[in-house]
Amino acid sequence: MTLREIEPIASETPRVERDPDEYVAMQKVTRQIAFEDGGWDPERKERIAQLFEGLAPEWHTRGGEDRLRPTRDALSRGGIPSGGTALEIGSGTGIHTPVLLDRFGFVISVDLVKEMLDLSPRPDRTALVRADAAALPLADGSADAVVCVNAFVFPSEYARVLRQDGYVVVVATSGDQTPIYLPPGDVTAALERQLGPVEAVTSRHGWGTWTVVRRAASSP
Ligand SMILES: C[S@@+](CC[C@H](N)C(=O)[O-])C[C@H]1O[C@@H](n2cnc3c(N)ncnc32)[C@H](O)[C@@H]1O
Prior knowledge:
Helices cover about 30% and strands about 25% of the residues. By secondary structure, the chain is α/β, with parallel strands linked by helices. S-adenosylmethionine binds next to helix 2 and strand 3.
């Protein structure tokens, strides 16, 4: 595994410190989902769905240019080619979808929660799909990129739907104070267990962090 860290871009605004009670428990869940067999079971799925159903009506208040910048930066400095089809995992109310549309030809926005998708606009070149990211209704090798913005990493399912030379992009818009957050080394390690040897690059933009992972080019 190679994980290359590139120069961070400093924030222009002071960090709003979060109470650890707001993120520690969910970070533990995020880690279990990424690394443990049985980390995502029907009971947990039900609890997560209920949580986000309740948050859906006010989710649009979490927009703003500051929150979009880490994703823009990941797609740009992370070296993602233009065009192709991206899966936007845990798309919520679609706050980040326009950023993905600037880079990809088509975006399939996937969310577990109907209440989130009902509040999501439907721009051209997108499809909204209600599904569990642990069991995507998509063919093997059909995605050029899997993009998780503040969303869980399901390594085996992303490895299945990703093209051989595709990319997984993982963004946490509040960095290590994001509830759904895995440190870059853990993102890379969790995906490598399913993708085989990988090359990854990571950086920060403002208070957000991002990691881009792809299968390592095979030796001639
Ligand atoms: C923290 S929100 C992020 C929403 C959006 N990406 C953003 O940053 O504004 C996480 C989203 O993931 C969705 N989600 C949670 N578990 C999921 C799963 N197993 N499959 C698909 N979506 C899921 C939730 O419903 C929620 O909309």
